[in-house]
Write a structure and sequence with these properties.
By secondary structure, the chain is mainly β. The chain has 2 domains: 2-154, Acid Proteases (Cathepsin D, subunit A, domain 1); 180-344, Acid Proteases (Cathepsin D, subunit A, domain 1, Beta Barrel), CATH 2.40.70. 7% of the residues lie in helices and 40% in strands. It has 2 helices and 27 strands. The protein has helices at residues 146-154, 246-261, and strands at 2-8, 11-18, 28-35, 41-44, 68-69, 71-72, 75-76, 78-82, 88-101, 107-122, 133-138, 157-161, 172-176, 188-191, 201-203, 205-210, 213-214, 233-235, 242-245, 266-268, 279-281, 294-298, 304-307, 313-316, 319-321, 329-334, 339-344. The chain is globular. The two termini are 13 Å apart. This is Peptidase A1 domain-containing protein.
């Protein structure tokens, strides 16, 4: 099974069909943000009290004949869910029919999938012009995630290839189930970890290089700390730009500044994005040539995750490999066997 990946304002989204209606097709199509860092599948529903602007209108759950509220003692069960950036969603837990694309291009029907019908939603989607995001597809460790609910069918495996964002961002796919990509000659493998029964996928980051220069960063800096909120490294499609611990960032920043100081035609500029390493290039034609790559050394044999020139990182108490740094890689999450398989590829040619 698979579903289209699209991009909106540096957020990657997936297209799903949901519900049963007297129409052709018998479902309604929506885009959900694709998030490996959380586990709730939810979308904004009709009748919401706190709503964000979206196109099409919120999901008309009361008109869907396959919509089933989850009851506890004959009363609807409600959920509350929060995210690291302060966003929240509150609503009714329910079951519904979802549609994806099957392997042969037809329809794959998934019945009785648990999801949240969002009624009180405080999240940034509405600030985007002509917003098409209706909710979020959690792909994390918890039982409520899209992956765990489909696990008997897909054996805990999903993969994706995020394309470079441009005026003509190509369509690629989030794929569910076994993938031939496991057998690629240049595949690398690193363990996946779960921390404090949380949703995100952690990897063991052991060091960073700029081009082929290994930076003097103590590997213990990336270890798990004794509390639930800091330490470790998450691989997360729901965070657009990667984030890195302050002391490690200082070393990386210094090395990148040294690199750019040796090149002609670069001028450091300030932006309103809150990013420290922004440079303006006098030559517009060279694009990414001569720009440095940043390599994340992960646990495993030669498990180096090489990020091309668009490596942009900022400060946090946890290290996160964001979606923008995952572009042009095939990433295969094998949740059952607790490992991440990855290799570089031109995602515009190999969706």
């Amino acid at each position: 099974m698979k579903t289209e990946i699209r991009e909106q304002d540096f957020l990657y989204t997936v297209k799903v069909g949901i519900g049963t209606f007297k129409s052709k097709p018998p479902y309604k199509e929506y885009y959900l943000e694709m998030d490996t860092g959380s586990s709730l599948v939810w979308m904004q529903c009709e009748g919401c009290t706190k709503c964000f602007k979206q196109t099409p209108k919120p999901f008309p759950n009361q008109n869907s004949t396959s919509f089933r509220p989850i009851l506890v003692n004959n009363k609807p069960r409600y959920y509350e869910y929060g995210y690291g950036d302060g966003s929240t969603t509150i609503g009714m837990s329910a079951r519904e029919t979802f549609y994806l694309t099957s392997k042969n291009g037809g329809l794959a029907k998934i019945e009785n999938l648990e999801f949240g019908c969002g009624l009180d939603n405080v999240i940034q989607y509405g600030k985007y012009k002509n917003n098409k995001i209706a909710g979020l597809m959690g792909l994390g460790w918890d039982d409520t995630s899209f992956i765990k609910q489909l696990s008997p069918i897909i054996k805990g495996v999903f993969s994706y290839c995020l394309p470079l964002v441009s005026d003509k961002t190509p369509t690629t796919y989030l794929r569910f189930g076994d993938d031939k990509s496991h057998k690629e000659k240049n595949s690398k493998i690193t363990p996946l970890y779960r921390r404090n029964q949380g949703s995100p996928y952690f990897v063991n980051l052991q060091g960073i290089s700029v081009n082929k220069t290994r930076l003097k960063i103590d590997p213990k800096m990336f270890d798990f700390k004794n509390n639930a909120t800091s330490g470790g490294c998450i691989i997360d499609t729901g965070t657009p730009y990667s984030r890195i611990l302050g002391p490690a960032f200082d070393v990386l920043k210094l090395e990148l500044e040294r690199y750019f100081s040796r090149l002609k035609g670069f001028k450091k500029i300030k932006t309103d994005l809150g990013l420290d390493l922004c440079y303006e290039r006098s030559s517009k034609t060279e694009k990414y040539s001569n720009l440095p790559s940043v390599t994340l050394h992960l646990r495993g044999t030669h498990a180096d995750f090489v990020m091309k020139a668009e490596a942009v990182l900022w400060l946090l108490e946890k290290t996160i490999i964001g979606s923008h740094q995952q572009i042009n890689h095939r990433l295969i999450h094998d949740v059952k066997n607790k490992c991440l398989v990855f290799y570089p590829v031109d995602c515009s040619k190999n969706p």
